[in-house]
């Protein structure tokens, strides 16, 4: 499932943009950029792991559960560390998407639709993209 690849590139672009914030920017903007940089890395890794786990779900549904658990952990850390309202909303949206995938897996679906997770990751990247 290559649906997430453009989304992952967008997350990586957001990370690069966030790190390119000029040094004379206000502390709040730097804080937001760092939140976004941390977010982009965690989300990119999590979505990659989820994509791989879902692709191999016939081998081990537990891998999918593990990937979802890691994304949940990363999202909770990000939510706890950010003071940015827009980023918080985007994280909440991704948390809901992950919860829906988890429910689908728990109901026996070995090939859940992870597109909403990728879409939520793209929304996080959009929030993190300056300008």
TrEMBL record:
Residues 1-25 form the signal peptide. It comes from the Bacteria. This is Secreted protein. The keyword Signal applies. Keywords: Signal.
């Amino acid at each position: 499932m290559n649906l997430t690849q453009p989304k992952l590139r967008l997350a990586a672009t957001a990370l690069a943009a966030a790190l390119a914030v000029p040094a004379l920017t206000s502390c709040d903007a730097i804080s937001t950029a760092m939140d976004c940089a941390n977010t982009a890395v965690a989300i990119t890794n999590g979505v990659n792991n989820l994509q791989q786990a879902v692709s191999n779900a016939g081998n081990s549904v537990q891998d999918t559960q593990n990937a979802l658990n890691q994304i949940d952990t990363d999202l909770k850390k990000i939510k706890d560390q950010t003071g940015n309202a827009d980023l918080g909303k985007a994280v909440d949206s991704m948390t809901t998407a992950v919860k829906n995938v988890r429910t689908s897996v728990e109901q026996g679906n070995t090939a859940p639709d992870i597109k909403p997770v990728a879409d939520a990751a793209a929304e996080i990247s959009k929030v993190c993209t300056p300008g």
